[in-house]
Write the C-alpha cells for this entry.
Amino acid sequence: MNAELGQRAQTTVGGNFRGRGIWAMVAAALIGSLLLALTTRGVLKHQPVYDELVHVLAARGLLKTGQPVIADGIYDRAELFTRAVAVSFRIAGDNLVSARLPALLCGMALVALVGSWVTRRAGLLAGMSSAIVLAIAPVSTELSVLARFYTMHALAIAVMLIAAYEATSPGRPPPARIALVTLALVAGSVAWHLQATTAIAIGAGAFGLAATAGIDHWNQVRSLVVRHPALCAAGALAVLAIAAIAAYWLGLFDQLREAPLWDQGNARRIGYYNTAFVKDLPLLWPLLPIAALLALRSHQRLAIFCISVSGIGLLVHSIAAQKALRYAYYLLPFLAVLWGCGAAAAAALLAGVLKSTAPGFKIKCVSIGILLMVLTLANSQEGQRTARLLLGRESEAQTLSFAGEADWARAMPALRPIFPTVDRIVVSNSMKALYVLGNYDAVVNANDVLESESGKEFGRDPRTGRPAIGTADSVAKVIGRQGHTLVIAEDEKLGQTAGVTTEVVTLLEARCQRVVTPRSSGVTAWLCIQQSPDSR
C-alpha cells in the first residue's frame, strides 16, 4: 500500500519536479553553487586567521623556493591545498582574497556535486533542496571564506563516497564499475593527504556500502543468516577485529584520544555536535529524523547509505576528543541529501494523498506544498540569515565564528617606531607576526609549546623553526637577556591556559612597560628593558 502510494506520488509530480536529465542536474548545481558564492561575497575580506596564514606563508615559500617554507621551518601538511593557494597567488595576486579562492571554489564544487548527484538519483526538487540546504549552512559559509583545506577535503570525500556508491549500484557495467572504483581510490588518496579523519569517512563509507549491499541482496542475506547464524556472526566479528587492528596499527586510536590544549574543554562532550547543529540549524536539525524517514520511504537505498555514513561518522567524531564542526564538515553533504530527499518526498506525498483527478490539481497542490516549505524556510533563522547575507546586511561578527580577530595593522603606528630599538620580538601569534611584521624571535603560547618538536619549553616549532615558550619562568629568561625585548600578544590569548597564561601576564606587567596601542586593535604590547644580563 505504502509503496503504491509512493509510486503514485512520484509519477504525479512528473518532469516539472522530478526531472533527472542533464539540464536538471546543471540547474541544481548552478543554483546551489551560485547561492553559496553570493552568501560569501560580503565576508570574504575578513581579518586573517592563524590557520589560514600557514597556507598563505607556505604558498609564498613555494613560489620563492619551490618548497612550503615558513621562516626557518616548513609546513607540508595538506601541501596540495597550499599549492592551490600558490596557483591562486600566481593568477590573481598575493592577497587574502586570492588565498581564499581555492576554498570557495571547492565549496561551490561540493554543492554543485551534491545537487547534481541527488537530482540524478532522486529528481530535481530533491537535488535543488539538497544543494540549497548545504549552501546556506553557516559552516559552509565559514569554511568557504577560510584559506584552509576543509572544503577541499569534503569535496574529495564526497567524490570518493559517491563514486563508491555508484560503483556498487545494481546493473552497473563492469567497465563503469572499474572507472568509478578508480575515481574513488584517487579521491580517497587526496582526502587522506589532506586530513587523517579520512579514516573515519572510509569506515563510515564501508558501513554504508555494506548496508546498501544488504538491501540489494536482502533475500540472499536473510537466507544466509537464517541457515548459518554462527558463521555470519563470526564473520562480522572478524571484520570488526580486522578494522580495529588496522585502526590501532595506523595510530587512529591515539589520535581519537588526543586533543590540543585549546580544545580540552570539549574532549568529553559527547553531545557536542548535536548542540552545535541545534545552534547553527535550529529549524533543519530537529527536522532531520523526519526527513530521513521520508527519504527512506521514497529512496531507500540512497537514504540508507547517507544515514549510515553520517550516523557512523558523527558517532565516531562525538567520541573523539578533538571536536569542531569543521572536522566533521565532510558529513554535512550526506545530511543535506536526507533533507533534500525528505522535502521532495513530502511534496510527492502530498500529491499522492490528495485523491482529486482534476487536470493539474495535484501539481498545484505540490506547488502549494513547496511554497509552504519556502515560506517556512524564509521565516527560519537559517533563511533569514541567508537573506541578510544576500542583501549585505549580515556583519562578519554575526556570520563568522572567527570574526573579531586582532587587527595588528591598527597597532602598527604605535609599534613601528619601537622596532629599530629592540633586540628581540616575542609574540603570541607566530603567523600574524610573520604576515604583518615579517619576523619574530620566539612565540609565547602554551599550546605552541605542546606542538613543538620536543613538546617542552624552548622547543622548536616545526612550522617556523623558532622556539616556543609558555611558562612565566621561560618568559623571564627571555626578557632577562640584555637589551630590549618587545612582547606582542593578542588580547584573546591573555590569561588563557592554552595561550598567554595569567602568570605570564602578571610577570610582564611587573617587569615591563606597557606600550599604548589602540584598544580596537585587539593587541597588547610590552617593552622590556634589561641593562645587564639578569642574574636571577
About this structure: Residues 408-530 form one domain. The radius of gyration is 27 Å. The chain has two domains: 2-398, 408-530.
